[in-house]
Amino acid sequence: MNEWLQARADQGLSTWTVQLEAKALGKLYGINPEDENYFNPPKRNREDIKRSRGDRVRDKHFSVTNNDELIKFCKGTGLRRSELGMLKGGDLVTKEEIEREIAVIESVPVQERTPAEEKRLGVLQDTRLFDCRYYIHVRNGKGGRERVSPIIGKNAAQIVERIRNTPNDEKVWQHIHQSADIHGYRAEYATDIYRAHARPIEEIPYDRVNKGTGRKFQSDVYTCRKDESGKKLDKKAMLICSKALGHNRIEVVANNYIRGL
């Protein structure tokens, strides 16, 4: 197994691909990651990420003009390709509808709520982080997670109109161009949300004390590492961004989505 994985790495496959294959084979054959002979894949570095960075051969086969509506839709919703493909006309929800459902669930005493109701309540309450009128209900995101994501940007009205003009049980997008840079559009969506909620780093209070040095520090400031070492981000804005994207860890947002800051 190790020889095959090393050959894959030598072929020039990305570190992410080789590491994924190593984990999958380890699980398949019941190999303990602590085993001294367990394959040690190359380290993953942000600067090595090729996805949605720069021009690619596939870009030559993709017309920005012909796919203008798709691009605007993706930049305003932040959906993954799979989520975009499953989106139906009935998945559009308004702030008013969300608040009504929250009120119904909260009217049930806490001790009488089902686990499903508590989970649903948390998903709905996350929308209060955003100041938007329209949202998309993502029923089955990555890892089967449900979320309600805001529709943002100057093209929000056009996006809402397309969904509204689609019957509830029909797909909003019957065809999604295979060369569309969906991840890149998703990154732009994430960056726009971060910018809209981020505080100037110098205005974030020094609210904690380092036990070792006795110096105050900003617990709400995230310091980037490796190739972006020294760059600082607002953790609260990162959390809001991660909620919209359907991620649980804010460092994923920093490492894979927020760009150009």
Characterise this structure.
It contains 10 helices and 7 strands. By secondary structure, it is mainly alpha-helical. Among the domains are: 43 residues, no CATH class; 134 residues, no CATH class. Strand 2 and strand 3 form a beta hairpin. It starts with a helix and ends in a 5-residue tail after the last helix.
Keywords:
261 residues, mainly alpha, 7 strands, two-stranded antiparallel sheet, single chain, 3-stranded antiparallel β-sheet
Q: In a nutshell, what does this entry contain?
A:
Helix content is 40%, strand content 8%. It is mainly α and 261 residues long.
Largest sheet: 3 strands, antiparallel
Shape: globular
**Fraction of residues in helices?**
40-55%
Strand numbers in spatial order across the main sheet: 1-2-3
Q: For the residues shown, what is the average pLDDT?
A: 88
Total number of strands: 7
Low-confidence stretches: none
* Distance N to C terminus: 42 Å
**Structural class of the helix and strand makeup?**
mainly alpha
